[in-house]
Amino acid sequence: MNENKLKEMWNKTENVFEISGYGSSSIEQFLSGRSRSTARGVRNIIIMDMVVKTLVVVTLGVDFILYYGTKNVTFVCIAGILLLAGLLFFQRRMLVHFNKIADHGQTTRDKLISMLTYLKTKFNLTLLAVSITYFFVFISGTLVYFYLVYGKVRPLDRVDIIVFTGFIILGIVFNFIANKVLIKYQIKHLELCLTDMNDDAMAIVSQNIETQKKQDRVNQFLLGIVLLIGFLLMVAVFKNVLG
Hints:
Elements: H1 3-20, H2 24-66, H3 71-101, H4 108-120, H5 123-131, H6 133-150, H7 158-196, H8 201-242
């Protein structure tokens, strides 16, 4: 849904309230419902990915047992488990932080402002952590497949490596874009809700975003470096195993 259609839908909703004679309490209930819907959608993305990561950790544990004695493969499994544990810890912190800002004790306006600030700043890192899950799913699943079919990790030729790398990149990119589209949709809704309040809500959001960016710049850089090093390490080790 593009921005114009979203605005048109929102304007129609406003007209319904005006024509029906609903007061501010009804509008407040509507906005509160929108904030709960957004919070539920964000939580679902984080929680579902944490479940998938946990299953991948279990799968890598099984791979470790199946390939016990094969040094390179067991190293891949251990490295994958450690990296996933770090990502799970990071996402749990992000989930706890989001639950605090989406607390029902706040006013609807404050919740909308907090969630919009969060989605425009911290959630980009969460999306990156979510998207990279596909890489670990591919590795753990491939190891299981090789064991069931060949009883070992068979060497791959250049074409195999190119194809596998392509699948991994496409999976990560598709995952990121799909979730990004969903979040952009939620952001547009929140912006329309706050804009319609006709106060300084959007100005506060802009100020919060600038402040948050300054505070998170170092953390974002460090997390990006960790993810990049982890990704390159896993690619290098896995390529060594398959080569």
